[in-house]
Amino acid sequence: LKSGVPLTMAGLNVTHQALVLPQDIERIRQIDNPVAQAVAEMLDFYLPLYLSHPRGLPGAAMHDPCTIAWLLA
Question: Where is the Inosine/uridine-preferring nucleoside hydrolase domain (predicted)?
Answer without folding.
Answer: 1-72
